[in-house]
Amino acid sequence: MAFHKNETSEFIYLGYKKENQLDFENFKIEMTNTTSANEKMKDIIVDLSGCTCITSPEIGIMVRVLRYIQGTARMLRLITTPEIKKTLEATNILRMKNLVTYEDQKSFFEEIAKSKPAAKPSPTA
User: Fold this and answer.
1) Residue-level pLDDT at 20
2) Are 116 and 92 a contacting pair, CB within 8 Å?
3) Which of 58, 77, 82, 107 is the most exposed, fewest CB within 10 Å of its CB?
4) CATH 3.40.1280.10 fits 3-110, yes or no
5) CB-hemisphere CA count at 13 Å for 16?
């Protein structure tokens, strides 16, 4: 499957790999729906690790999302590959606020694990 969505209590995860034009259309619809859902103030994770390249339409929708969430606590978190990161660097999108990138899925999960508060010890009697 070239596109899938999963939602947790903290994040909205969008896995994306463009295999045909319909995949991009689904990605665009979900990105638009995700950002316009004002009641869901969750971070958006876009997993691009399955992509070999991205083009201006994908970058354009990410810029629109970043503009929409600018000034909020929401973040757009991109899981990339070295090739994808080079493309993003060339477009200057990485300078935008509310954007975090990760080199791979492992880096993303490690960062999230660090940010979770430690469990409080249970009171002793």
Assistant:
1) 82
2) no
3) 82
4) no
5) 32
